[in-house]
UniProtKB/TrEMBL annotation, chain A:
Protein name according to UniProt: Phosphate ABC transporter permease
Membrane topology: Multi-pass membrane protein
Gene3D superfamilies xrefs: MetI-like (1.10.3720.10), YVTN repeat-like/Quinoprotein amine dehydrogenase (2.130.10.10)
GO biological process: transmembrane transport
Matches recorded under SUPFAM superfamilies: MetI-like (SSF161098), WD40 repeat-like (SSF50978)
Localization, UniProt: Cell membrane
Family to which this protein belongs: Belongs to the binding-protein-dependent transport system permease family.
InterPro entries: MetI-like, MetI-like_sf, WD40/YVTN_repeat-like_dom_sf, WD40_repeat_dom_sf
Organism whose genome encodes this protein: Pseudoalteromonas amylolytica
Domain ABC transmembrane type-1, residue spans: 442-730
Keywords: Membrane, Transmembrane, Transmembrane helix, Transport
UniProtKB/TrEMBL annotation, chain B:
Name the UniProt record assigns to this protein: Phosphate transport system permease protein PstA
Keywords (A to Z) from UniProt: Cell membrane, Coiled coil, Membrane, Transmembrane, Transmembrane helix, Transport
Stored InterPro entries: MetI-like, MetI-like_sf, Phosphate_PstA
Lineage: Bacteria, Pseudomonadati, Pseudomonadota, Gammaproteobacteria, Alteromonadales
Keyword Heme annotated: no
Naturally occurring in which organism (per UniProt): Pseudoalteromonas amylolytica
Topology within the bilayer: Multi-pass membrane protein
Amino acid sequence: MSSNPQQPSFRTDRSRLFKDRFAQFGISAGGVMVLIALLLIFFYLLYVVQPIFESAKVEKRVDVTLSSAQQYVGIGIEEQTEIAYLLSRTGHVDFYQVKGQQAGGLIERLSVNLDGQVTSAAKSAPFLGQYAYGLDNGQVQLVKPSFLVTFPGNERVISPRLSYPLDGKQLLVDEQEKAIKRFAFSHYEDKTAVIALTADKRLIFASFVAEENMFSGEVEWVVERTELEIDGRIDELLITPDTTRTFVRSANQVYIFDTRYPSDVEQIQVLAANEENANLVGTSLLAGANSLMLANDNGEVSQWFEVNSDTGRKFQKIRAFETSKNSDVDIYSEYYRRTFFTTNNSGDLGLYYTTSEAHLWQGKVSEGAIKSFAVSPRSNAVLIVADDKLSVFDVHNEHPEVTWSALWQEVWYEGYPEPDYIWQSTSASDDFESKFSLVPISFGTIKAAMYAMLFAVPIALSAAVYTAYFMSSELRRVVKPTVEIMEALPTVILGFLAGLWLAPLIETHLPAIVALLLLLPAAMIGTAFLWTKLPEKIQHVIPEGWHSILLIPVVLIVGWVSFAISGSVEDWMFDGNVRQYLTNELGLTFDQRNSLVVGIAMGFAVIPTIFSIAEDAVFSVPKHLSNGSLALGATQWQTLVRVVLLTASPGIFSAVMMGLGRAVGETMIVLMATGNTPIMDWSIFQGMRTLAANIAVEMPESEVGSSHYRILFLAAFVLFIFTFVFNTVAEFVRQQLREKYSSM
Amino acid sequence: MVKQWFKSGSPWIWMTGGAVSISLISVLGLLAMIAWKGLSFFWPSQVVEMHLDGSVAKQVVIGEIYDREQVPKSRLEAAGYDLSAYDQEFIERLLIKTGNREYVELDFRWVLSTDIQQQSTPANLAVFERSKNGNFYGYVEQVIEDGKVVENNAIERLYEFVERAVELNDEALDLQNGDIGHINYELERMRLKEKGYVLDNALTDERMAELQTRRAQLREEYKVLEERLFELRKQAKRDQVIVRDMRGELVTLPLYQVLDVWFPNNMSYFAKVGHYISQIGKFISDDPREANTEGGVFPAIFGTVFMVMLMAVIVTPFGVVAAIYLHEYAAKNAVTKMIRIAVINLAGVPSIVYGVFGLGFFVYMLGGSIDQLFYPEAAPSPVFGTPGVIWSALTLAILTLPVVIVSTEEGLSRIPSTVRHGSLALGATKAETLWRIVVPMASPAIMTGLILAVARAAGEVAPLMLVGVVKMAPTLPLDGNFPYIHLDRKFMHLGFHIYDVGFQSPNVEAARPLVYATAFLLVTVIIALNITAIGIRNHLREKFRSLEH
């Protein structure tokens, strides 16, 4: 429709109105979305961190009524937690489906090839998944339920089978072929060992090493047997997977043997290990086999491991856990983590983590006594045989190692002489005890920031005060942007210079740095004094407010002199080598990349931030304030200290806060200018590892969703909150100040 | 009197002035040092021949003097040198770059000046820049063309042969990366296509046959190209040069490994300038060699620019819309004020936090979902569920969003309200006023914000280490293979290049000048961007100040 000049077209207006509304709506929606996206950072970090503080959950999945009232010597479950198996005393292995629609059905029953009558049975460390039968002819047969996964027609089918780790060969433990009453074994990598109690009460340690015959290529077994002497009855036997330690419990005594060399088995320690007014009822090895867990009949479970002492490495009681009061406590450990489960004869299940001393879960899972128990390979399910039923429970316990105390308090880690703050997140082995103390890296962050501030604050604030208050305005117009441009300099360049240029320079010219610190102020005051002595004519040539340009040659000369005399000073005072002097005479270790380097480099990065904000604050102090003070007869300096700085102090405070925020979060400089060792030491000659650098180093390698990954997110979250709060306080103070000025 | 003087506070004024001097000296000194060390690397320095005797066995050393330092005599004596014949307090020590890496244990060595019996700069000493094992220094003895010794004009012919070999090598490389790379890329795509059909249960015989014929066809093409490649390589291997090195032994250098040859001691000043410029050109346009410690930084420049441009495309609309909303539409109340403070403060959150967020949210969550939905055939290897250039750009966009918002808002608030009122009074709607009057007037401010954002993004390294940067990317994110822009690829970055070469490379000494040169490049770009931004901002302020009166 064409518009008519006489008849204004409302239609057009309506479309304009619509456009206006549309723009308002579109821009508002867009703007709000962008702001929400920024908020998302906060919530996403929180979302990733949150699971580590969730408590463990245990939920029943399925009950399977067992067909025959058999006695089971071992139970287990495969990795997908779909199939459970039970090994009976007669040598049958029953496989049950425990997941999906057919849950509860018996899939298959297999028989172990046994050449003899079963007299005893034992199981290996959980992660090996092996079981063994002791026979009446002094032999031991190893067996391992295993699972073949196939994909016919794109569907996963898991079929159970039995495999024999030693190719079905039975180990002859007792040469006298007496029945084996009780035993423990380990077959791991190239080491195989059995400790067995025979029917005639002899305790035999036997080691089997497979050696390939050079000529025939046949495998021959080299067997070493040692009889061990122990007074009293023998209750339990344990052997570590690497066969270096063997434990024998006899009532309340635990005998520890060094079985590293099968030909030279040595008793190294006897522990009287029961708690006060209690007796030992159970023993177990924790994952990694460094810790011995002992259960007492008052329900207490104690952890013991080897600690360096004056008389060599000795087992020592580290900590104890209160479990349910029950006289029959059994301990089961996980595959790789330091989690352990306790069961008892009244159906209680307890879940604990040793390192963080966490009591994760406790509850009643059956009416009667728990007869058998097993943990799934991925620790996401447990199996229980009780009341003639096989029950599967799903366990949600992804991050047992993270607790408040584990992150922030001293923890006694396996093999360490005392409780300590350690950050050591990964290692080559699966059963590594992760050490997640945030204390050393938080300490490093604070240390780095402190040294940076120590360097930056005096220089930046003095420079800001001078530039804002004394400097002539034409000079200020050049100086301010020059210093501010520093803020844009990529920190990777500062870090690179700090690491590759400054660090070696400081190492070789340490006296020069000290000399600079002493000589520079002295030279400045000296120059100032000499300046007053100059004839007035010369003084007037240079206008007021150009002091800093006058001082540039002075600083350069002092710098040059300091470095020039550095070698001589070193020669004269420290026998030509300061580093050696520090190490030998003062006992200080000197890292090339140390806090001094970081302090200077990071201070350098922080100076422009502090300078810029502080300068603004001082410069915008209303002129009538200082003019009034000067008119009343105060000197420039008095006016500055008593009037200007006092008025601008909130702004200066906010400048320092901003600088601190930047120093805390700086990554590249710390990464490149320190050795990144998480040590706790205030020494200026040693390095540190900061939260930010730690994230940069470890994040790319950490497994998604693992505790390590989430703790790194936690570190990022801490940094986020910390800097955000600091900046907000600073910004708030600044805005208040601006309002105050405008009302003056 | 001195007491009086101290009381007046004048010395303290001088002290604060001194702090400014220190800041200025360190800023300018730092920039000057980077510039000097970065630029002097390309100058063809003299190659010296030294006859050593004394604390070391009698020998000849040929190389460039890299560094000099004064060492206290006592320290050297403590280290086991016998220097009783000299009575100075300090002994000069020279760092010599001897090159010839495959024949000597170390291509850098310290030489005491007291050991130098004789030193000269013979005009016929040649420097060979090689594609493997770094530089080679020595005297040209014979030039061999296709097995025959060149009798006349050997040196001119040598230049000619080197140029020929370089050209052939370039051609071979183009072939390998261009046509052969294209075939490999297509074969890989066909593998994924086939797997995709299998997953959808749609792999019919017809499709199978189609794929097979195409594959056979590609293999045929590949064979032809491969033959051509081998032919080129064979041709490039034709010539050799025999050089006498500092041990006095004759070494045969195949010319296909030689990139350049020059006689620095025999160069005129202009020849040196020409060589200098060509070296800088090569630094900017070549690919890195030998674990990034030699060669150029072209892929890093390209990666940085590409990523930053991508980021600018993402950040500008969002930043501007958010700023317009905050300034024009949002209610003027305490909530808006708080939001504004929060946005400003996000600029102060450590960049590594953004990196962590980018890795978790963009790479694993968003990228992982994209892979599941659109690239099931590529599993288990991720396409977008792994760090890449798009995620880096997005992460840096979020990082620099506050910069753009703050700068644009400042620009908006500087526009005098009279201008707005005038437009509204003439009957324009708010949207029209915004679109026709306010935004165009604020565009320099938007530009400033964008430039500042780009400058910040170009210098950030820490977050990129988590979301997409690598030390050596085999392919650029932009190439001739469909769909031409590969947002999922990893990329190289100048800042990370500095970190990687300076701190992770096996031969830090050899790489150091290169790092300085890279640092200089990066600093120049960033400072230029910043100065431009500041210039625009100042110009804008002046303009609006005049509008107000």
